[in-house]
Structures are given as structure tokens and as C-alpha cells.
Amino acid sequence: QVQLVESGGGLVQAGGSLRLSCAASGRTFNIYAMGWFRQAPGKEREFVAGISWSGSRTYYADSVKGRFTISRDNAKNTVYLQMNSLKPEDTAVYYCAGQSSGSPKYDYWGQGTQVTVSS
Predict the structure, then answer these.
(1) pLDDT 10s digits, 17-39
(2) Which residue has the higher pLDDT, 2 or 14?
(3) Each residue of 57-82: b (16+ CB within 10 Å) or e?
(4) Phi, psi values for residue 88, rounded to 5°
(5) Are 80 and 20 spatial neighbours (Cβ–Cβ below 8 Å)?
(6) Beta-bridge partner residues of 29
(7) DSSP sequence for 29-60
(8) CA distance linking residue 117 with residue 119, whole number of Å
(9) Could you report how far apart the first and last alpha carbons of the chain are, in Å?
(10) CA–CA dist 21, 88 (Å, integer)
(11) Distances from the Cα of 73 to the Cαs of 12, 17, 18, 27, 79, in angstroms?
């Protein structure tokens, strides 16, 4: 099994920055890729960013391109999401997710961390 624990959420003013962290533990060798998702009140969960286990490939939702950066430190089994130029519409619970090798979907999920951007 794999455990994912997010941290780094909080309250920030519009235009500010936050860095989220996701620490993975357990059978981390099962993980093929990692991603960040978010869910705002009354909305469905949406993909934000993804990264391959090697870090050579990254993917972003159009809404965050140029503002958010996903990265990883394999030595620490940690994935980061640097969020700059935050907007009130970025307010959501942010979830870290892991995808097993050969799986078409994300199999492991963290508990989420709240990000609130005030205008």
C-alpha cells in the first residue's frame, strides 16, 4: 500500500504564492506517476498537474499553465506544487494522487489540503 500526505495549504491573498508538498510512503516503488487535483465547493474534482516518476514529463491544466509548477524529489519521495500568481478561483481542497504502473487511473489519494485565496 501507498500513503500520501499533503501539506502546505493555507490562506493567501490574490497574487500570492504557496507551495504544496506531498510525501509518499509505503510501497512507493509501485508508483508510476504523481498528480495534483483540486475540488472547489459545489464543483467536481479536476486535474491540476501531473509528473512522471522520472520527472521528465509534466502536464498541466490550461487554467494553471504558466502559474503552477509541479516537481519531485525522489530521494525524499516527495512531490511539490509551486503555485504563483494565485487567484480566488484557485480556492479549493488540493489532493495529491499516485498512479500505479500499468494502471489507467490514479490509485492512491491523500487526504487533501485546503487552499484559500482571498481577493
Answers:
(1) 999 999 999 887 777 899 999 99
(2) 14
(3) eeebeeebeeebbbebeeeebbbbbe
(4) -55, -30
(5) yes
(6) none
(7) GGEEEEEEEEE-TTS--EEEEEEETTSS-EEE
(8) 7
(9) 40
(10) 21
(11) 25, 20, 18, 16, 6
